[in-house]
Every structure is written in structure tokens, then in C-alpha cells.
């Protein structure tokens, strides 16, 4: 049984009274997604709109893959450690506001299975996987594997393997609808925290930094500024162990998102020290301070799964 239940429309409406909408880049989704009553609020963003079906996409994040496409249409973006201490992204989309193209798409990892188990049977689009992991993904009861379909295509203007993209329309068909994964939202910043206009997180061979511009956080990766923005940033410190699905090229990281640990929330130009707790794979993740949920600003959240020190 899931420990975090969906936010009711009435409670969410009171929570978001007086929400001001900021300007975002052109591929951002509308604050009133297509379809469904606007009296409902997304459990993934806290913004108005009925819950759509969930599509997660694994996205390349080395220099040759940048800038990526479609990230500012995502509800959430996770940054995850992969081989060599590099990072890969997972963008989570609501099917009600998909961009026309997403990518470059890359392969799945064991981390994805545990991370996505808190969602309700989402679709996961990826370019491939380790030979023993691929059948596990295809047979998984926790997600729908989307790979090798006609939705995927190559961009001849980029070098392989950093040039595979997809048209996401229809890939969430049959997936579960967005449900509560533990996030809470409020337009007003919570009490406490400290002024902080910048924040940073790192993996062995990857760096992320976030700069508050008065409305959102501008994302930089490995020292290079990107076109991507976030309304919230969560730096979630996790245990990283070796995956059971090995590679001939070396250590394959498996970031554990079930358990508990420390985290930092960046919102509205302030920094909040948090604890995170996820009792089981099908439970949502609670982000708390002194035992109380700490609300995010309604909008897009980047979550960096940073290795615990």
C-alpha cells in the first residue's frame, strides 16, 4: 500500500490560492493543461490541470548531447549517476502537455526500475539496456518499456550515439495516470531556510549548479549554462552501490531511492535542509524538516540524486 495519497482538489485549491505564474521558455507547458477541469491540481507540479498519463524518458547528458530537447516541458527532471561518474537525465512528462520532440535518448539502468516504482505504471522510453536488464524492463509490472519503435529517429546533424530522438505523442498510451509521489506544494515559501541565490551538486565526473534569477533557477551542467529552468531544486543524497546488471566497461552505479537520508531544497531564492524518507518501492518520497512536509513552489522540479558523502 502506498503511504502517500493523492492531494484532493479542494485542499490543493486552498493551498494554491493566489498563485502567480512566471514566464518560462517557449517549450514550457501551459499552467492550464489541455483536457480535464481546472479545479484539479497536478500532484507532480501543483499547477492546475487534471492528471494525465506519465511518460519518463532517459536523456543523454554529456557535452556532445547538449543542448537537449524538450526538458522545459517536463514536470520533473531527475539527474542520475551512470558509468564513469557521469550523469544521465530522466525527464517525467504528463501526457497532457508533451513537447513534439524529446532527446537525445539513451539507455536505461537498474536505478530507473526502483525510482519509477513510486509512479503508477508509467511508460519509460529509452534507447536500450544491458542484455540481462532489457528483458527485466520489458516484463516489468512497474512500468511499460518503450524502445525501438517508430517513434524513435536519428538526427543526422549530430554524432552517434548522441543523436537518437523521439516523438513522444502516444508513448504514454496504456500507462498509469499521474499520482501522488510525496511532493507537496504551496505558493508562499515555508518558514525557515536561509537566503541562497545559488546551489550546487556533484557526482564523481559531473557537476550541476542552479542560479536564482528572481523567478526561477537557471540550470548549468559541468560549468556550462543551459536553456533549462526549474521552479524547485532538490539535491537528494543517496547511497550508490554497484548494479547487479554488470558492464564490461566497469562499475555500473545503482542509486538507491528507497530508504532515507538528507536533502536540500532550493526554492524562491532560499535553501532548506531536509530529510527524505521512502519506506518501500511503491511508496512516495517524503521531504520533511522536523517531521513536517516542506512544500515546493508549484512548477517544475529538478531532483539531483547526488551520492552521499
UniProtKB/TrEMBL annotation:
Top-level taxon: Bacteria
Keyword Nucleotidyltransferase: no
UniProt keyword NADP present: no
Cited Pfam families: DUF3048, DUF3048_C
UniProt-listed InterPro entries: DUF3048_C, DUF3048_N, YerB-like_sf
Signal sequence annotation: 1-26
Keywords recorded for this protein, A-Z: Signal
DUF3048 domain span: 45-175, 207-303
Designated name of the protein: DUF3048 domain-containing protein
Protein's organism: Actinacidiphila polyblastidii
